[in-house]
């Protein structure tokens, strides 16, 4: 996968690309990442990329010319152009899977008060990482790129992503490591029993409990099988008793 971020602050991505799993993914050529300054494409004699808002009002907007020329110079036939904005479609794990299918993406990061509306006609997807406002699109772009890159084969070497929160529509079950007891808190006995079927069932139930308590909206969306429905009923009963 090739990712080109168009930004006024290409150095913003240095720590992202030079750290841990993402660094390894780039070194191992699972992903070809570059950040490009769209100011380099301005034809303005003062290198400006912004201008005042037509109709009046405070602040400045990013102008069409530098951004559209940067998109045209960095896109191929099958490139998906993604814009990070507070008005975009909410990002979730399903959307990450969809976007990570693309072999080539451009991620556009805004600043000031945002983009001239006409830039949107050069964009395939407008994405928001959540219902809050950021000073610039770079932090949102890092979130999207991280989520896409980690899905690529070979980037994460564990068995699969299947146990990740959101992959199966449930939050992750509680996990423990040594010591067996820490300041009076014990690892649940069942996890030390070596009984794989009981452990599988316990994890599924605790996944359902965490989702029921924290994100009941996810349970409403999920089709539960017979075993999951039974475990959910048990969880509801147990939580009533507490
Ligand atoms: C596009 C348009 C993404 C990008 C406007 C970006 C939140 C998200 C930005 C703006 C983002 C998200 C510029 C509007 C700064 C607000 C103070 C960059 N914010 N901004 N203004 N939720 N900001 O994904």
UniProtKB/TrEMBL annotation:
SUPFAM superfamilies: alpha/beta knot. Keywords: Cytoplasm, Methyltransferase, S-adenosyl-L-methionine, Transferase, tRNA processing. It is found in: Cytoplasm. Its EC number is 2.1.1.228. One of its GO terms (molecular function) is tRNA (guanine(37)-N1)-methyltransferase activity. One of its GO terms (biological process) is methylation. It catalyses: guanosine(37) in tRNA + S-adenosyl-L-methionine = N(1)-methylguanosine(37) in tRNA + S-adenosyl-L-homocysteine + H(+). The keyword Nucleus does not apply. S-adenosyl-L-methionine binds at residues 110, 129-134. Pfam families: tRNA_m1G_MT. The keyword Cytoplasm applies. Residues 1-220 form the tRNA methyltransferase TRMD/TRM10-type domain. InterPro entries: Alpha/beta_knot_MTases, tRNA_m1G_MeTrfase_C_sf, tRNA_m1G_MeTrfase_TrmD, tRNA_m1G_MTases_N, tRNA_MeTrfase_TRMD/TRM10. It is an enzyme of class 2 (transferase). Homodimer. Belongs to the RNA methyltransferase TrmD family. This is tRNA (guanine-N(1)-)-methyltransferase. The gene is trmD.
